Amino acid sequence: MLTRYKFNFLLRILSLLMLSIIPSLYLFEILPHFILPVWAVIIIFLCYQFQKKQIKLSASIILICLSLIIFLFLLLFLFKIISAEPFDILYLRLGVIFPFLILQTVFISTSTINFYKNEKYRRYEPIVFFSIFALLFWTQGNFSMSVFEHPIYAVLFSLSFSAVEIIRLFLSFNFEKKVFTFFLFFLLFFTFIMTFVLKTYNESSSVNHGGLLQPTLFRFDFSDYLKLQSEIKMSDDLILVAHFDNDFSHNMLRRMYLSGWDSAKGFYEKKAPSEKAQIISLPKGRKDILHRAFSMREKVAQEYFFVNLSPSSFIAMDYPTQVIPYEIWDSSKFNGGYKVFSDAIFDFASDLYGEAFPSGDEDEGMSKVDLDFYTKIDDESFKLVHQTAEDITGDIPDYLDKILALQFYFTDGDFRYSLKPGKAPDGNQLKYFLTETKKGYCTYFAFSYALMLRSIGIPARVAVGFFVQPESEIMNYYPVRANMAHAWVEVFFPYIGWVSFDPTTSQLAEGENINFGMNAGGEEFNSLLSEILEKRSEIKITEITEREDDVLNIGTYIKQFFKDNISFFRFIIIILLIIIFVIYKARPHLILKFSKNNRRIVLTAGKLFKKRKRSTEEKIEMNTLIQKAKFAPECTIDDAEAAKNLLKNKTKKIIVLLAFCLISCFVFAESAETIVVEAEKAVEAENWELALSLLQDGIKKYPQNDSLFLKLGEIYHNKELYKPAYKILKNGLEINPENSSILFYISGCASSLNKYEEALMYIKNYLRLIPYDRFAASNYGWLCFKCHRPEEGIRFLLDNIKRYGEDLSVYNSLGTLYNEMFDYERSKEFYTKAIKGAEQVNRTYSGSVYYYNRSILESQFYRFDNAIEDARAALNMKERSSSYMILGELEERRNNFSQALSAYLSASADDDTPLSALNIISLYLKTGHIEKAEQYILNQLQNTSEAWISNYGLSVNEFKTNLYKIKKSLYIRKYNFEKTELKSGFLGWIKNFSNKINYKLKYTYYDAVFRLYSLKVAKEYKKNSTGDLSGNTNNLYTNTYYYNAFKGKGKKALKYLKKAESIETMFIPQSAGAYLADRAILEADLKLLNEGISKMDLEWEKHSLADLYAQGSKIAKNHSSQLYYLYLESLFDLNPAVFLEYDIKLPVKITIEIDKIENIKISAKKMKKLILSSRFIEDDNSKFSLRLTYSNKGLTFKLADKNGYTLYSKNFPIEKLDKNGFKNSVNIFVKDIFTFKL
């Protein structure tokens, strides 16, 4: 029987499983979904078995935890000692999830045994589970439901868990009066706490979304009032997809305007006395919106598809005139959509100039009472802004010129854009912005501009909504993200209406690194757009119709019904007319066929007979029959048959002809070929909606016509919408597998989707049909390279040259494939042929590519002088981002960081991939510029598509390996910096402690992800490993990535390093030094390390030498003081920023001199102690000396080398030297010392 206790226990298991799933939702890259739930079931089963043995509570918990933890340690140890590849992988994976299993073991065993044995705990356990659930979800801050594909899933998951726990809570109590009172009190208290928490949560969310957006049940919307925050953050959540003509991409997408002003509240939503209320919620049905007609407006249609915006929100340009809500297809990604028509300003026309001020005349569009309302401002704000506004505009007579003068005051003056305006000492943020800091975000600029305009009698209001990036457009669709939320000002013009002006400057405040040109599109937008284009035919128009006054009478209903169904009625009328015409024409023939009246048959046949040419005999015979029918007393059936026989032959011919014409009308009225032609015309006119509609409808009519699929796929492909293109082309290929054009395009799509094996198969089939296509042949070679099949590609391309002659692109592909095979001579031979050919025919772009590829070859074979020469030649041929990047990489190898950074920045100016950003970030990290690196990660590595990878020599997993390597490098540096930064006060210590935990956890996570992706890359190469020469190449990369995965894991890394060394040194002997040095680090062998370093190129391998000196110093510290100091001196000389990466303290001899007449509040002993708490260690044998002097109200730091040469010197003016002042000075000094100057 299922008792309350058993039912409670079953529900408890369900709750634990749900809790166990949550970590894997966050950490899906390192934690498989099934691991924790399965482990949870095992723990619960063991707890159940222990419970039956009646062991004491504490003993049960200890025994279960110990037994499971010992089992895990034994398993880990077993995997560690077994030297086989499968066990190595299991060792690494178990090591990654090990901490989670330990934590889960302790939590579930403790709570389960308590549930069995402690009734009081059992009663209140649901509250404990609620708290844990809230804690796990709390990190989904700012209502960003990233762990679920759709917010509704998060809601359902949360509600399900809550329902289970509430049921358990009821099952745990026998509700007597006393308990019921407590329970009621608890619910009230819990509700109060949750209300407070959600309020704080909402405010935090607004701050984290630009100060404009706030959450509404896991969605976002704008607040109906704006506040000036002291600091905000930006989020790149995709909010909606907008669709309108690109001629209007400069227009703002307005959510609402804020007309009311209150000095304490700010601008807020309030209706002017005589104007109609603005529509701020989406109507339930079609609605016409009336407004006064203004000049200089054009009708523009817009569509909005909501992703993370509240479905009740209403957005439109300028003056919306009609709204049509959509019932969209069944989608987990979109939560609403609609179409709206607006009267919008197409461009800022010169006709506006010279217009006079509004007078309050209603003919102008604004009444006197509304004019007073829109120029209203409180006295305190008036005093703050009026004088400045007058000084700027006093000598300017014209209305528009005044408006522009004030706008330029903000956009082109001393004001700067900042997400951290700072907190005003007196609480008046607006005054602080205008008079002190002159830095803020869009709301600050909009407030100030609107108030200045109002102070000089110009009606103004603040508007909030979004801007779009014109360059992010695909087929007139635009992505709109949370960081594109904006506030601006609308100004009224007589007879023209409200016009938008944006006063926000694009000049950044010092220390800000905001990318205004961020990539708004990316993979997510492409995926959503693909769904819209595929499913938009399923959109339904809501049948409900709303009028402006929301009253619907029968006449309006009938009128609207006919309006909505006019196309149907037109069709019915045409069909009726055709039927009447056919009946009229067919009536004589029907008489001949069905009439029983012989006279009527003869007379009807006679009428038809007279309309046709016949012989004289036939005419005489027919006239006789007609006369008989008219006047003879009897007309027999034989007479009727004779009349019909005279018509018989001609009638048959006419019927056949009519039938043929009718069939032709239906069959050939609109052929598939006609549809394709019309679609091409629409594409030329950039009427994408018409083109797609024609082709999608055509596919429904002619589902077996592959040309329609080809054209639609081609359009998608050319707009880089590879997923829908791939899908539609695949359908076309099923119809006609021999369609060469489809094969060509689908190969491109598959490649861009990183499905290289498929792409190779399709291009192979294409070349079977079109073998003379040289571009396709070179593409075949490139795909063999991407699939790690160089020998197959080489065989094919050499045969292609033999058959069809020379071709530059084929030569280039051969060079790449031979490079993959480590055949330097053959690779260089074909690259050189391609370069000479390009130079002869002046193909500068191709020549630049070929030089770039040869530069990679030379670099790979340690011929760096040749490599940098080719990199510069590539730039001379054509400036390309790739050429700048290889030049930067070569300069970085020899620690020419400034030149490398310059090259990377040049590359990023024209780079639509994240590669240049990755190089810039990596360089900033290597040189100690951590904040700049972090800003680049936040601004440059968001919303990137993966289609670009198909054109570069790496896979998706290789790119992610590089990405996570950089991220782990960032957080280990931040952690090491926090470890030795001197903090002031208790709060500073708390923040420092919190940061260290945060950075350490992030480093651990990204390190684990990096290792797991390294395993994936190794698996990719291993899949194509064979016993031939190309197998050696794949084996090399397989072992290299295994080494990266296991580096730091002892002997497991060493064996893979040795395997890679044996292969690469066979092809590239110059690599032996680096391999020896890396092996020496793993074996802690200083002699081997020095041998390896001696074989390395001291000019071109400085980047590697710095890492080796850092790691070698840690080994030498306890074994050889001479090498220890030598390595540290060499390291400091090469790149002092590496000290931070490897958490190395610089040994120095410290001297402190303090002028006795100075008033100080800190002793020399304390100073030394604080210095040694930072990034220094005292060592009298060190070659470095650090001298501190304090005199003349100045603290001076001087670092010198063994020869007395000053490496660094800095003076800090300090009036009274105390502990906090000294700490700040040391922090700045340390940061300067261990940062490479760029």
From TrEMBL:
Name the record gives this protein = Transglutaminase-like domain protein
Q: Which PROSITE patterns match?
A: TPR
The residues the entry assigns to the signal sequence are none
Q: Indicate the transmembrane segments per the record.
A: 9-28, 34-50, 57-79, 91-115, 127-145, 151-171, 178-198, 568-586, 654-672
**Record InterPro entries:** Bact_TGase-like, Papain-like_cys_pep_sf, TPR-like_helical_dom_sf, TPR_rpt, Transglutaminase-like
One Pfam family of this protein, by short name?
Answer: Transglut_core
Q: Which UniProt keywords apply?
A: Membrane, TPR repeat, Transmembrane, Transmembrane helix
Q: Which residues form the Transglutaminase-like domain?
A: 434-505
Q: Which regions are annotated as TPR repeats?
A: 706-739, 808-841
